[in-house]
Design brief:
It is built from 8 helices and 5 strands. By secondary structure, it is of the alpha/beta class.
Length: about 230
């Protein structure tokens, strides 16, 4: 089987580009998505299509009911912020932050990686064009990687050294899209909107839609998003 990697897949631009990079780097891909009670569950249909197109070894969807914890506009009856300017998006942690989400997701990815023998876990976080989430920062990723090798049988016994791979972490959304175009990604397959309508069409007004549209504009690439 050669090299194996677990890739966290939300069906969005960043995770799909990270998956394409993992494939380019010669990894057999194990795609991991989550139904966690998110209001934009349409992203799971996108993740399924992407897994099929990429020909992954397996696409696993885990059910985690984070609605019972709440505390986020994505999992609770809290309005998704709309029409926020770029300054506000980049300077404050918004209510779309899901408490400890990346820690929860990476922990599940780590468990699966240990079982299938994958030393690398790819996650499409970045710190330049993002919505202020604390679990997208390099210091967080470094801390989780240290923990991963302390908290697993494979790590403690020296059978495997786990790496959390963040190939997009220093890139703007435009640079990510340009990289994706080089890798021939069909971005019509992806979904980013936090508050889509009943048909899955993007609102065009939430932080994620604003960052997505800005990315395509700055990349000089036509935005393929279907907006409501």
């Amino acid at each position: 089987m050669g090299k194996k990697a677990v890739v966290l897949s939300s069906g969005g631009i960043d995770s799909t580009t990270a998956m394409a990079i993992a494939r380019q780097e010669g990894y057999s891909i194990y795609s991991l998505s989550f139904f966690y009670g998110q209001r934009h569950r349409v992203e799971l249909a996108a993740a399924k299509k992407i897994a099929s197109v990429f020909g992954v070894q397996k696409h696993l969807v885990l059910n985690l009911d984070l609605k019972k914890i709440g505390g986020s506009a994505l999992t609770a009856e809290i309005d998704v912020p709309k029409f926020r300017g770029q300054d506000r998006i980049s300077k404050e942690i918004p209510v779309t932050y899901v408490p400890a989400r990346n820690t929860i997701f990476l922990s599940c990815a780590l468990g699966w990686a240990e079982v299938v023998g994958a030393s690398d876990i790819y996650i499409g976080v970045n710190i330049l064009d993002y919505s202020g989430y604390p679990d997208c920062r390099p210091e967080y990723i470094a801390a989780f990687e240290r923990m991963a090798n302390l908290a697993t049988k494979a790590g403690v016994e020296g059978k495997m050294k786990f790496r959390i791979r963040t190939p997009l972490i220093g890139m703007t959304k435009a640079q990510i899209i340009q990289k994706g175009m080089e890798l021939q990604i069909d971005y019509t397959l992806t979904h980013s909107c936090y508050d889509p309508d009943a048909e899955g069409l993007a609102c065009g007004q939430c932080d994620s839609c604003i960052l997505r549209r800005k990315g395509f504009e700055e990349a000089g690439v036509q935005d393929p998003t279907r907006y409501a």
